[in-house]
Structure formats: C-alpha cells, structure tokens
Design brief:
Structural class of chain A: mainly alpha
Mean pLDDT of chain A: 90
Shape of chain B: globular
Order of helices and strands of chain B: HHHHHHHHEEHHHHHHHHHHHHHHH
Number of strands of chain B: 2
Low-confidence stretches of chain B: none
Low-confidence stretches of chain A: none
Structural class of chain B: mainly alpha
Radius of gyration of chain B: 22 Å
Largest sheet of chain A: none
Oligomer: heterodimer
Mean pLDDT of chain B: 82
Number of strands of chain A: 0
Shape of chain A: flat
Distance between the termini of chain B: 45 Å
Number of helices of chain B: 23
Radius of gyration of chain A: 23 Å
Order of helices and strands of chain A: HHHHH
Largest interface: A-B, 68 and 62 residues
Number of domains of chain B: 1
Chain lengths: ~150, ~500
C-alpha cells in the first residue's frame, strides 16, 4: 500500500465522518444556506479528492519504506504535550514545566543530574518570571500556589 | 506622491519614538535568532511572541512581530552557508552555492553578499509596499460578497498550485483547514458546529494553536531524535569583505531577485520559498557560466537571498490592503491585529494610518538594523548553533506551550496544539503540505460568510459570481489555475513544482 493511497483512504473516511456529523445541522437551501451547507459541500469535495488519490497514486512510496527513527522521542513528546494540557491549570505552570522538562532532560536525554536540576529549575522558574512578571503574560498557578 | 511622503513622515515620527524603535530592534534581533536556529521558523517565532505583545499598543506589537518575520529571512542564510542546513525553509537554495563557497574558504563573502542582498531587496520592497498597498485598498472598496468569495477561491487555488508537490493533496489540505475553521458557533444562525459539547470550542479553533502545532510541535517531533549536527564553520570578521568581482557579479542577481521576490510574494502560497527557487533558476539560465552553479557561484547566493526578503515584504501587501493573508505567517500577523481589536480590510490603511505607515517606516529602519546585526555580529549568532539540540528542543516545547496558552489562557488551546502537532507530524510523513491547513482555518469564516451572503443577494443563483465583472475576472483566473494544474497530468512532464519539491528534499 502506498502512502498516498493511505492518505486518500484517510481523507475519504474523514469526509464520510464530516458528512455524517452534518446530519444534525440544517442544510437550508440555495437561497438561504444553513450552517450545514458548506461543510457538506466541502466533505463531498474532500471525499472526491480522497478517491482520486486512491485511484491514481499507485506509484507513490510504499508505507513500508517510511522510517521512524525519531519514534520514541516523538511518542514521549506527544505524551508531554498532553500531560501539559491537563496539568497546566491543575498543578500550575511551574510544577508542570518542572515535570515535563525533568522528564525530557533526565529520562529521555539521560543528562547528568546537576544539569537536569539546573536546567529544569532555571527554565521553569525563569520563564515564569520573565513572562508573568516582566512581560505581564498571565500564566496559571496551581492549588499549591505555584 | 506628496500625500505618500507626508504619510511616510507620519510613519517615521511613529517608528522613531523610543519604544517603537526598541520593538523594531528586538523584532529584528529575535528574528535573526529564529532564522539562525534550524527548527524554529518565523511562524513559530511569531506565534510564540504573540502573547507578549498583548500589553503593547497595536503599532508596537505589529512592528515587533513583522521584525521577526523579515529578520528570520536574514538569519536563515547563516546556517545554510556555514552548515548546509537551512535555518528556515526559504534558505534551502542558499545551501547549494553558499556552502560550496564556504568549503572554498569564501564563507565570509557569501554571508556578506547574503546580508547586503537582503538589505537592498528588503528596502526596495518596502517602497513597493508603500506605493502598491494604498491604491489596492482603494480598489478593494468596490468589492462585495461575490467579489470576496471569488477572490478567496482564486487565492486558495493559487495556494494549492504554488505550494509545490501534488495539487490534489494541497487542495485536500485546504479543505481540511476550511473544515477546521468551521468548528464553533455559526455566526449567521447561532448553531454550534462540531464542538462536541466543549464550550471552549464555541469560539472556534484559533490560528495560533493550529500554526504552532503544525509547524512548531510537528518539527520537534520529526527532529528530536536526530543524531548530532555537523561542525559549524566560523568565519573571521576580516574575511567578510567580498572581492570587487564578487560585488560586480551580485548586482544584477540582487536586482532580479528583488523584483521576482516581491511579485511572487503578493501571490498566495509559500512565496518566500518559491521565490528563491525561481530566482536560482533564473540566475542559472541567464548566467554566462551556468556550470559554476552548485560549485560556489555567488549569484546562487545573491539572487535567492534577495528574493526571499522581497517576498516576505510582498506578502504584506494583500494582508494590509485587503485583509487577506497569502500564507501562514501573514495569517498570524493578521490574527495579532484582530486580537488588538483592529479590523483588517480595505479600510485599514485609511482608518489606521499610524499603524500602517509606522510599520512601513519601521521596516526601513529594521532592514538597516539587520544589516548591522548580520555582518559584524555573525560570529555571535552562530554560537547559538553550538547549543546541543537535546537542550534546545525541550526549550522550544516550553515556549510553544507558553505561547499557545497565553493567547486565551485556555488549556483547550494547548490540547488543540498537541493534536495539531501529531497531525502535522503524520502529514509530513505522508508527504502532505501543512501551510494550506493554516490558511484554510483563517479564511473559512470569511469565505463561508461571502458565499452565503452572495447566494442570499442573488436568491440562490450561482450566476451572480460571473455576472459581476470583477468576480468574473477572478473566476476566469481560477480556471487558468486549474488548467495549469491539470497540464502536467496530460503532458506527463515534470513541472517546476515537482522540481522544487525535489530540491527541498535533496537539501
């Protein structure tokens, strides 16, 4: 299976999903188009483009030829992003960043402990000071006041 | 002419105030750093700085962010010449001859010509922006919803064609972006669309989390595990001066690159990247010694580096005159204006002369500052390249989170950024372009509103789009674009877009 065909299938499925979701939105008519009018129109075009990719891109590189050397790092970073999403308002910016940066420097990159401590504390508290106090960009504090 | 000069005077009186001068300097400095560091493009840089401009007045904020945009074009050449790694995508073509010159011990002159070319192109294009944007804005006052819809449809088709790679895939990405842009409350009916009960999605998906996710996070995901970077060549200050012959050989490439870059910059698409490719191709074609290209021809540095600076300035023309962004970076700049409560559009220049002319004047000053920053201080900037990437990428991630969270102080935006990061990473793996997605998100509300208003005006008759002359011209141009896209399928020839994609992959 080529990467373009996989892309085409994904686009076709997405188009089908969008079309299915627009069933709850009024379509309106040509005179007064409703909120579902353009999304449905776009879903139809997207589905058509997906089918076109499936039908024509048989000479694209195969899926097996894709290399994922950065896979572990990428997975860890995605986990950090989602952790930060849910923790930033619960634990506060500084504690969240301590955990995220500590994990990246200490666990993923296996840096020496003094480097990890210095970078983690310096960056999380330093960036909070610069943005929150100097640039007046409000960053969240958690339940512990941090 | 007299009116323009009077307005320019107003601009300089704004740009030369102590705080605006400082913001222009900071923008240029940060832009150069952003350009020097591979993996942090101008888009990510501007998005991350956006929250810090909330406390500034709109003029200062725009001057700062625009400085990052054109400053990054200067900085991008440094890594291309010294390491053969493009600091940002627009410096890809500079890698070829710039690095070849560096290997021959001519890194200094290559850097100097890149900086001088960028300065000349940047300054001349500001003149173009100054004279072109106000009449274009006056012309756009004639536009109604059908004209806007046709213009945006044309813009998106041009974007699909000019972005490079497969046009079908680019169109699919534009539609994906438009669908993302339709999440939230429908402004005409009040219906919630695709928001799944999440109240924060009612306002829709912001351009900043989408842009930072697709460009910033996706870049880190793709590069974080890579092995160590190659050694950095460090030129001495005394070696920077080009020879008389090198100067002479660069004059015309700089001139041609400036004109080409500015004109391509106005067109939607990844203009600053395309302009460098076009400029390189033109220089090779007109050269008496095309065999020198690829082995250290100074024209191969002067042309593309002038073109990418001119293109970054050209891209501001439709953004400031029509309120229509031509690429992801102008889209974020537009978002910055809207955050400050300013409505972009044809009336912007008339209603906000201080901001427009202040920006224009700051760009004259900024280009001069960048020349000073990039020549004597190049040795300092390349020290940034000595920071190991394993230290750098967690810092970039931290700035991404700060930048995105601070726009709306919402963790939902950080979640959107994370999802977009994963999406951007997968799209890159599967050879899809991500810039059209960002533009789709920005243009979705305008394009939908214009379509529905046009249909309401014509009682549901689509013929309104060809009955009105300006709209018909735009649609005619769209048909030409479709023809150009279909042509290589019929004539089975590699067109310039495929060659551009190959060149980008090679470097």
């Amino acid at each position: 299976m080529t990467i373009d065909r996989i892309g085409g299938i994904a686009l076709f499925l997405l188009a089908g999903y969008v079309a299915f979701e627009t069933r709850v939105l009024p379509l309106g008519n040509h005179q007064i188009p409703g909120p579902g009018y353009l999304p449905l129109l776009l879903a139809v075009v997207l589905g058509f483009l997906g089918v076109f990719l499936i039908a024509t891109k048989k000479n694209a590189p195969s899926f097996r030829s894709l290399k994922w050397p950065e896979g572990i790092h990428a997975l860890a970073l995605v986990a950090c992003c989602f952790f930060a999403t849910f923790a930033i308002e619960v634990l506060g910016y500084r504690v969240t960043m301590l955990i995220v940066l500590g994990f990246l420097f200490g666990v993923l990159e296996r840096m020496k402990i003094w480097w990890v401590l210095g970078l983690t504390l310096g960056l999380s508290f330093g960036s909070y000071y610069v943005f929150n106090n100097v640039l007046m960009v409000i960053l969240p504090r958690g339940g512990l006041g941090f | 002419m007299a009116e323009t000069l009077q307005n320019l005077l107003l601009g300089f009186s704004t740009a030369l105030t102590a705080h605006n001068f400082f913001y222009a300097f900071m923008g240029c400095l940060i832009g150069t750093m952003v350009g020097v560091l591979p993996g942090v493009g101008p888009l990510a840089g501007i998005s991350l700085l956006l929250p810090s401009t909330f406390g500034l007045d709109p003029t200062g904020g725009l001057i700062l962010l625009a400085g990052v945009f054109y400053g990054a074009m200067y900085g991008g050449s440094t890594t291309s010449i010294l390491m053969r790694i493009p600091g940002e995508a627009a410096s890809v073509m500079t890698c070829i001859d710039g690095y070849a010159m560096a290997l021959k011990g001519r890194a200094g002159p290559a850097l100097a010509i890149a900086a001088i070319g960028s300065y000349v192109a940047g300054t001349i294009s500001v003149v173009g922006l100054m004279f072109l944007a106000p009449p274009l804005a006056r012309f756009a006052l004639r536009f109604g919803p059908p004209e806007y819809f046709s213009l945006l449809a044309l813009g998106l088709l041009v974007l699909g064609y000019m972005t490079g790679g497969s046009m079908i895939k680019n169109l699919a990405m534009i539609i994906l972006g438009l669908l993302f842009g339709m999440i939230g409350i429908d402004h005409m009916s009040g219906y919630f669309r695709f928001s799944y009960g999440i109240v924060a999605l009612g306002d829709g998906i912001g351009v900043v989390p989408v842009a930072v996710g697709l460009f910033g996070i996706a870049e880190i995901l793709a590069t974080a595990g890579n092995p160590l970077r190659p050694d950095v060549l460090k030129p001495k200050l005394k070696d920077l001066l080009p020879s008389r012959q090198e100067f002479r050989d660069s004059i015309f490439p700089i001139g041609r690159g400036t004109i080409l870059g500015f004109l391509i910059g106005i067109i939607p698409g990844s203009a600053h990247i395309i302009s460098t490719f076009m400029s390189y191709a033109v220089e090779r074609r007109v050269s008496k010694h095309p065999e020198k290209f690829g082995h250290g021809a100074i024209e191969g540095v002067a042309g593309p580096e002038s073109a990418n600076n001119a293109a970054s300035c050209g891209a501001l023309v439709p953004m400031l005159a029509l309120g229509v962004p031509t690429g992801p970076v102008p889209a974020v700049l537009l978002a910055a204006l809207m955050i400050h409560g300013i409505n972009p559009g044809p009336l912007f220049i008339k209603e906000q002369p201080t901001i427009f002319w202040g920006l224009v004047a700051s760009m004259y000053l900024g280009n001069f500052m960048l020349l000073l920053l990039n020549l004597p201080l190049v040795g300092i900037f390349i020290n940034f390249l000595r920071i190991p990437y394993r230290i750098l990428y967690p810092i970039i991630l931290m700035f991404c989170i700060i930048g995105v969270y601070a726009v709306n102080t919402s963790f939902v935006d950080v979640g959107i950024m994370s999802v977009m990061g994963v999406l951007g990473y997968l799209l890159r793996k599967f050879d899809f372009e991500t810039a059209p997605v960002v533009l789709g998100v920005v243009l979705a509300p305008i394009i939908e509103m214009s379509l529905r208003q046009s249909l309401a005006m014509s009682n549901g008759a689509y013929i309104i789009f060809i009955q009105r002359p300006i709209s018909a011209v735009f649609l005619g141009a769209s048909l030409v674009m479709i023809f150009l896209a279909v042509k290589p399928l019929v004539w089975k020839r590699k067109d310039w877009r495929e060659r551009l994609a190959e060149a980008e992959k090679k470097s």
